[in-house]
Amino acid sequence: MANDVLNIEVCYASDDVQFLQALQVPAGSTIARAIALSSLQQRLPQLDLQALQVGIYAKKKTLDTVLREHDRIELYRPLIADPKHARRRRKASV
Predict the structure, then answer these.
(1) 1: helix, strand or coil
(2) CB contact set of 26 (below 8 Å; sequence gap of 6+)
(3) What domains appear along the chain, each with residue ranges and CATH number?
(4) What is the enclosing helix (H) or strand (E) of 34?
(5) pLDDT value of residue 4
(6) For residues 49 and 23, which has the higher predicted lDDT (pLDDT)?
């Protein structure tokens, strides 16, 4: 039955790496399961997956979030600078 499998994507990007993998996961899978099934950990073993935040289409989620058809799981790097602070600093220098 077609509803037994979900088509999803897992993506991660940094300054020097872009990772995007389309895969099929069993219905009822979580974000954590999809990341484990992707080749992300093998391709980027230096990543601390526990330290990264995750989301679906730019909305933060938890690793136990159940996936839906065509979800794109995004892994977010930690912020280097607070965007609000950076905006204030730019405005003050004008």
Answers:
(1) coil
(2) 4, 5, 6
(3) 2-92 (3.10.20.30)
(4) helix 31-37
(5) 92
(6) 23
DSSP-assigned letters across all residues of 20-54: EEEEEEETT-BHHHHHHHSSHHHH-TT--TTTSEE
Local structure of residue 4 (DSSP, 8 states): G
Number of H helices, E strands in the chain: 3, 5
> pLDDT (tens digit, 9 = 90+) per residue, 53-87?
999 999 999 999 999 999 999 999 877 767 777 77
Region 32-49: mean pLDDT is 90
The pairing of strands 72-76 and 5-13 is parallel
Please give the order of strands across the beta sheet that includes 72-76. 18-26, 5-13, 72-76, 53-56, 59-61
pLDDT at 16: 87
Instruction: Name the CA dihedral angle for 34, 26, 70, 66, rounded to a multiple of 10 degrees.
Output: -70
pLDDT value, residue 1: 46
Cβ contacts of residue 3 below 8 Å, gap of 6+?
A: 27
